[in-house]
Write a structure and sequence with these properties.
Blueprint: E1 3-8, H1 15-20, E2 24-26, E3 29-32, E4 35-38, H2 45-53, E5 58-61, H3 65-77, E6 81-86, H4 94-108, E7 114-118, H5 123-138, H6 143-153, E8 157-162, H7 166-171, H8 177-185, E9 188-194, E10 200-207, H9 208-223, E11 231-236, H10 240-253, E12 258-263, H11 266-272, E13 277-282
Parallel strand pairs: 1-2, 1-6, 6-7, 11-12
Antiparallel strand pairs: 3-4, 3-5, 8-9, 8-13, 9-10, 11-13
Helix pairs in contact: 3-4, 5-6, 9-10
């Protein structure tokens, strides 16, 4: 039976990729300078990042059940089953809203299959998982086969990232104020990852910006052995030059053939801040 894969904008794909992958995307919401808009990942993001650098604050909102209903319903009405791959429940209520909408729609469309997966991923980590799901779909795998693969492999989807300014993590409650102040003075850069519950965890410290970027590459070398990482994903918070540096290191030291680079979108970027660089790949464990 035909089925549609639906995801949300937290996967941080550049806009053209949704059409290329035949995906339905549902946007989260960002409020910036008093205006609420759909989460976006395009050239207009520079304005958001510039505002964040100047001390402006953006607020964000998850997808609600009504939003998920509007995304799923047309496909169900057209006789398609639905596979939803949602933003980590450890960071947002977006997944829970998808479950609520799915339960209601199952009563209305009992002949259709609706599977909702908590990816426990974010940014291009979620994007990489969705990308693999689309590849399996295009190879003829069934809805159940694809969802089973996602459930089995989401804990092998490694998220490793660093930030340039510790104060954004302090505002989000990820580190203490004292750690942020001392770390900033000493030029200590954190290296973080996303754990199996979809939460962001501070794992290590690197001296200086270059050291933190090199640490991301080392994580792929440590965890990615035995996995096909010919294609990896890399997102950045308006710091393309740093992302290009990591890309070069990945190709030279890890044998990576293709690095898909994209902005950290407006919603996630408003929490992680400018200067974020995040690497996503398959590995032994997160």
């Amino acid at each position: 039976m035909p089925y549609q894969i639906i995801t949300d904008s937290a996967c941080d794909f550049p806009t053209p990729m949704y059409e290329q992958l035949n995906l339905t995307m549902l946007p989260l919401t960002i409020t910036f300078r008093g205006v609420s808009a759909n989460d976006r990942n395009d050239d207009s993001l520079k304005e958001v990042y510039d505002g964040l650098r100047n001390g402006e604050v953006a607020t964000t909102a998850a997808v609600n059940p009504q939003g998920w209903d509007s995304a799923m319903r047309p496909h169900l009405q057209n006789g398609k089953d639905v596979l939803v791959l949602a933003f980590s429940s450890g960071l947002s209520t977006t997944y829970q809203s998808a479950v609520i909408a799915a339960e209601e729609l199952k009563e209305e469309f009992p002949e259709r299959k609706i599977i909702v997966v908590d990816t426990l991923c974010a940014s291009l980590g979620q994007g990489l998982l969705v990308w693999y799901a689309c590849k399996l779909r295009d190879q003829g795998k069934s809805l159940e086969e694809v969802s089973a693969w996602v459930e089995e492999n989401k804990f092998h989807l490694c998220h490793w990232f660093t930030v340039d300014d510790l104060m954004y993590l302090k505002r989000g409650g990820r580190i203490s104020a004292a750690t942020a102040v001392v770390g900033t003075m000493l030029q200590i850069k954190p290296v973080l990852h996303m754990d199996d519950e979809g939460h962001l965890i501070n794992m290590a410290k690197a001296r200086g910006r270059r050291g933190s970027l090199d640490a991301l590459v080392k994580k792929l070398q440590e965890l990615g052995a035995g996995y096909d990482n010919s294609t990896v994903f890399l997102s950045h918070g308006d710091c393309l030059e740093d992302a290009r540096y990591v890309e070069k290191q990945l190709k030279e030291k890890c044998g990576v053939k293709e690095v898909v680079i994209s902005y950290v979108g407006a919603v996630i970027g408003s929490h992680s801040g400018p200067g974020t660089v995040a690497l996503f790949f398959l590995g032994e464990h997160r």
